[in-house]
Design brief:
480 residues; alpha+beta; Cytochrome p450; five-stranded mixed beta sheet; three-stranded mixed beta sheet; 17 helices; binds protoporphyrin IX containing FE
């Protein structure tokens, strides 16, 4: 146990005054809960306490202190047990996001193996194919001069991209509109979110039609994924060379699970295929939506991004991993978007042993809430912190960003549980953006009330109601 004499206790920290029994629960609005936590961090400082019901929560908005917590996993801290409990109750097979301890360690090895750079190279043509489908869909909209429901289209893109990779099947919601398994998957995360934040677990006593529909969806997903695993096993048996060069995440995970001593079987493969789908769709689609919105509101940055893409990657049909690597300004736009609009702005953890955070004693089982957008928009680390200035991320910026500032934004988390899908997400986002900028001029990106997009916390932090109109560009690089 760490020495705690002379340390502050959580109850001594500043924080919002609450009510008996409910604490601060009624002072947070679900749709903007991240903004409530951020506002309190500005008011009470980067280390404060609040209460959800009777549970005392230590809130950490200082990125260095929170990074130390994130790095002290899996032994010092775990994800909030509530998420795991709800996921298990719903009947989701365990995957990387809900696993802990040794289970997590084994599964992490398997998932990381499926993201090995050599494998991603094999997956690349399927990403390009999906990007070209999005291009075709947007060409149609541009020709008809109809407005595009931006988030819906970007979700179709990320669904097709990740589902294609994960199942090894050509899922095509961009052209056919709907996919059966996806329709069931779409129910899962909103249900987990609703139950995690619900004060009364009504579903334990009375199942409403939505709860019964969820049970049915989970049963269909589990059965379908087990069937996909069986088919993949047959494929691998029929063509042993595939074990060397798996063509999708599912095959790669089976190969990794089949290693001696992996301790993993088909249930863990199913759990993690599902995890990839759930963790990789909303996050990537909404980051893209934010980026398009921010670029549209910052014409200078948009112009630079257009110029870079049109000089280096003018034709989506010839996109390659090497070309994508050259788009450094686009990279900077992605980093700047995630600094200002991290789609996972809060992270809930629990201490697994008595420990300390800075000068505060933290007893075992304390609930911790990490606020990811406090230091990333602080003047201590960034000049003009609320402005969208991608060039600040470039090595040849007039005032190159220091290492501490770079770490102040951590949209993918940190430490051993840092997002394993980050390179894939970055690649997907670059492909979609490079396609958009090479082939179209953006005529408008508008919100329902014409102002800056509101942030709404659902499963991820989303912009509310963006629609976009595009104009096709001719191949000589001039707008038509
Ligand atoms: C812009 C897109 C994305 C963002 C912002 C994002 C963000 C995050 C964050 C903040 C975490 C928690 C990290 C931590 O605990 O330190 C995480 C974990 C995770 N992400 Fe992502 N993610 C994105 C895309 C993806 C994609 C495309 C995939 C998979 C294909 C994915 C799979 C996962 C998984 C499996 C975990 C759990 C890792 C573990 O607990 O060991 N993510 N992500």
């Amino acid at each position: 146990m760490p020495a705690t004499s002379g340390m502050r206790q959580i109850k001594d920290l500043p924080g919002p005054r609450g009510l008996p029994l409910v604490g601060n629960a009624f002072q947070v609005k679900l749709a903007s809960v991240h903004q409530d936590f951020e506002r309190w961090a500005r008011e009470f400082g980067p280390l404060y306490q609040m209460k959800m019901g009777r549970t005392q929560v230590l809130v950490i908005a200082d990125h260095e202190l929170f990074t130390a917590v994130l790095r002290d996993r899996p032994n010092g801290f775990r994800r909030s047990p509530r998420i795991t409990e709800i996921a298990m109750e719903i009947g989701l097979p365990q995957g990387l996001t809900s696993a802990e301890g040794e289970d997590w360690q084994r599964q992490r090895r398997m998932v990381m193996a499926s993201f090995a750079p050599g494998h991603v190279r094999v997956y690349f043509p399927s990403l390009r194919k999906v990007t070209l489908r999005l291009q075709a869909r947007w060409e149609k909209a541009a020709r008809a001069h109809t407005s595009i429901d931006l988030q819906a289209d970007l979700m179709r893109f990320t669904v097709d991209a990740i589902a294609g990779l994960a199942f090894g099947k050509d899922i095509n919601t961009l052209e056919s509109g709907e996919d059966v398994i996806q329709r069931h998957l779409d129910k899962v995360l909103p249900a987990v979110f609703r139950r995690v934040v619900s004060l009364v677990p009504h579903w334990r006593y009375v199942k409403l039609p939505a709860d019964r529909a969820l049970d049915q969806s989970i049963a269909v997903i589990n059965a379908t994924l087990l069937d996909f695993v069986a088919q993949a096993r047959q494929r691998l048996q029929g063509d042993p060379a595939l074990r060397e060069k798996p063509g999708n995440l599912l095959d790669a995970m089976i190969v990794a699970a089949d290693q001696p001593d992996s301790g993993l079987g088909d249930r863990q493969v199913v759990g993690n295929v599902m995890t990839m789908l759930l963790a990789g769709e909303d996050t990537t689609a909404n980051t893209l939506a934010w980026m398009i919105h921010l670029l549209q509101r910052n014409p200078q940055a948009l112009l630079k991004a257009h110029q870079e893409v049109r000089a280096l990657a003018p034709d989506p049909a010839s996109f390659s991993m090497e070309l994508m690597e050259q788009l450094v300004f686009l990279d900077a736009c992605i980093s700047e978007t995630m600094r200002l609009k991290p789609v996972a702005p809060l992270m809930a953890l629990q201490a697994l042993r008595d420990t300390t955070v800075g000068d505060v004693a933290v007893p075992k089982e304390t609930l911790i809430m990490g606020v990811l957008r406090h230091d990333s928009v602080s003047e201590r680390h960034f000049q003009n912190p609320y402005a969208f200035e991608p060039q600040r991320w470039l090595p040849d910026a007039p005032q190159p960003m220091g290492a501490v500032a770079k770490r102040a934004a951590m949209p993918f988390g940190s430490g051993p549980r840092m997002c394993p899908g980050r390179y894939l997400a970055l690649l997907e986002m670059k492909m979609a953006m490079a396609m958009l900028l090479s082939s179209f001029d953006i005529e408008e990106v508008v919100t329902p009330n014409g102002s800056e997009a509101q942030e709404r916390m659902a499963v991820t932090m989303n912009p509310v109601g963006l629609s976009m109109r595009l104009r096709e560009r001719s191949s000589n690089g001039k707008g038509r």
